[in-house]
Amino acid sequence: MNLSGRSFIVMNDFSENELREVLKLSQELKNELKNNKSRKYLEGRTLAMIFEKPSTRTRVSFETGMFQLGGHALYLSASDLQLGRGETIEDTAKVLSGYVDCIMARTFKHDTAAKLAEFATVPVINGLSDLEHPCQILADLLTIYEEKRDFKGLKIAYIGDGNNVAHSLMIGCAKLGMNVSVASPKGYAPDQKITAVAHQEAENHGGILEITTDPEKAAHQADILYTDVWVSMGQDKEQEERLKVFKPYQINKALLSKAKNDSIVLHCLPAHRGLEITGEVMDGERSRIFQQAENRLHTQKALLCSLIKNVSMLWEPSLKS
Ligand code: CP
Ligand code: NVA
User: Where are the domains of the chain?
Assistant: First the structure.
């Protein structure tokens, strides 16, 4: 199994074993960092980071990760690039490939990230598109593994908008044999094509995927409750309507009581306290939200070391399946 030279645009780009390999490496890099034993696996390597939308976690964790690994990261806002003045994605991908070892892009249209990957000769990482947010799910899975020591048979309930985060989460969790229940209001369910892929992954890995409009049904006996914002970047015009429709989909103490007693709560952040999650739950004892945010750093370092070509590392066996 070799991820070297590959891109990571959708969650389904990685097999179960490849996911486990990246998660195992994430644990090792996290341990190295915590024990002050970090090694400069990416010395002399450069990452171009294209951002069409704002970011706190993705930008800072990728940039810091590259620095810790001995490499360098370039922040490129789309409006600063010639891309913003009409240079094609194809030409941009080819030109950047001549300078850098990897490209990470946060785009509005998913097709922009996919096209970059098609024409670049270096790996391209999707740092969030309107369709998927696969890097987020690597951190989520590491957090789940740290807390539960396994994936198979766990129930994760995603409560809220059937958006980019929900899409990658459904596929990633189904791939690892988890049972996934998604509760969204009518008209805001996940994309049908993605749902079909997630169903297939669930079937292949012995899990169940449930799509419902009932948050309590989803939360029932769940091991993990997960939510994301009700209004994603680029949807500001829909804010008023969305805030009304999503009101019954808040993760609060009452909903948490439907889950298992040892359940944990995750949120990809940024959060809107009092909307999709109460401050009480977010800061409560079941929340692993800030651990999850920190894990973006460790999982993305593992991703970079895995995808960038000709990186020499000591490989360990992947997490047990
Ligand atoms: N979760 C996440 O991707 O956060 P940012 O938008 O701050 O990068
Ligand atoms: N669904 C959110 C995720 C932010 C990390 C958005 O796309 O804005």
Answer: 11-133+296-308, 135-293
| Same fold: 11-133+296-308 with 135-293 | yes
Span 11-133+296-308: which CATH code?
A: 3.40.50.1370
The per-residue pLDDT for 319 is: 58
- pLDDT on residue 84: 83
Q: Is the CB of 269 under 6 A from ligand 1?
A: yes
DSSP readout, 267-321? E-S---BTTTB-HHHHTSTTB-HHHHHHHHHHHHHHHHHHHSTT------PPPP-
Q: For residue 233, how far is its CA from the centre of ligand 2 (angstroms)?
A: 6
From the number of C-beta atoms within 10 Å of its C-beta (0-12, 13-18, 19+), residue 36 rates as exposed
Mutate which of 129, 130, 165 for ligand 2 pocket (most atoms within 8 A of beta carbon): 165
- Beta-carbon count within 10 A of 210 CB: 15
What is the chain's Cα-based Rg? Answer: 19
Q: What is the pLDDT of residue 312?
A: 84
CATH number belonging to domain 135-293: 3.40.50.1370
Q: In terms of residues, how long is the chain?
A: 321
CA 186 → CA 159, 211, 255, 306, distances in Å?
A: 13, 11, 19, 40
Give 10-residue mean pLDDT values along the chain (321 residues). Answer: 92 98 97 94 97 97 98 94 92 98 98 98 98 98 97 98 98 98 98 98 98 98 98 97 98 98 98 98 98 98 97 64 49
Kindly give the number of the ligand 2 atom that is closest to the alpha carbon of 55: 5
Measured between its terminal Cα atoms, the distance across the chain in Å is 15
Ligand 1 centroid to residue 203 C-alpha, Å: 30
Ligand 2 atom 1, closest CA = 232
Report how far residue 285's alpha carbon sits from residue 86's, in angstroms, rounded to the nearest whole number. 50
